[in-house]
């Protein structure tokens, strides 16, 4: 598995996508790839988000698929099971930090941080 640094060295832009239309997901990902964008964040704000993540992982393996708006350990685990390789959270909680060190510790977790203290605390926890 690539490090976050390696992923972002290649992917300077990670579009944050709120999508519920399963049929539109693959064409969207293919268009991003054709435009030189090799990563996508599917937010968990729609009922079909996990299904879309799973579909993109299977149908468009050239794109790094991430899950966004991950707020609970259940969100974290569901996104991992769906195949997400990046987990984006709007904040940082003990629950999410513990989930990131679970059996899915190979999935890259990018916690939301606001202050330098948040950055230091998350860095100290890996």
From TrEMBL:
<keyword id="KW-0119">Carbohydrate metabolism</keyword>
<dbReference type="InterPro" id="IPR000887">
    <property type="entry name" value="Aldlse_KDPG_KHG"/>
</dbReference>
<dbReference type="InterPro" id="IPR013785">
    <property type="entry name" value="Aldolase_TIM"/>
</dbReference>
<keyword id="KW-0456">Lyase</keyword>
<dbReference type="InterPro" id="IPR031337">
    <property type="entry name" value="KDPG/KHG_AS_1"/>
</dbReference>
<dbReference type="GO" id="GO:0008675">
    <property type="term" value="F:2-dehydro-3-deoxy-phosphogluconate aldolase activity"/>
</dbReference>
<comment type="similarity">
    <text>Belongs to the KHG/KDPG aldolase family.</text>
</comment>
<protein>
    <recommendedName>
        <fullName>2-dehydro-3-deoxy-phosphogluconate aldolase</fullName>
        <ecNumber>4.1.2.14</ecNumber>
    </recommendedName>
</protein>
<comment type="pathway">
    <text>Carbohydrate acid metabolism; 2-dehydro-3-deoxy-D-gluconate degradation; D-glyceraldehyde 3-phosphate and pyruvate from 2-dehydro-3-deoxy-D-gluconate: step 2/2.</text>
</comment>
<dbReference type="Pfam" id="PF01081">
    <property type="entry name" value="Aldolase"/>
</dbReference>
<comment type="subunit">
    <text>Homotrimer.</text>
</comment>
């Amino acid at each position: 598995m690539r490090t976050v640094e390696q992923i972002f060295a290649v992917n300077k832009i990670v579009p944050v996508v709120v999508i519920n239309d399963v049929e539109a997901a693959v064409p969207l990902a293919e268009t991003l790839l054709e435009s030189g964008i090799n990563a996508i964040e599917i937010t968990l704000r729609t009922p079909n988000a996990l299904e879309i993540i799973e579909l993109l992982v299977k149908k468009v393996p050239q794109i790094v698929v991430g899950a966004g708006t991950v707020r609970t350990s259940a969100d974290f685990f569901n996104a991992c099971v769906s195949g997400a390789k990046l987990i984006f959270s709007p904040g940082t909680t003990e629950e999410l930090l513990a989930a990131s060190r679970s059996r899915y510790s190979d999935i890259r977790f990018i916690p939301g941080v606001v202050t330098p203290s948040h950055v230091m605390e998350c860095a100290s926890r890996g």
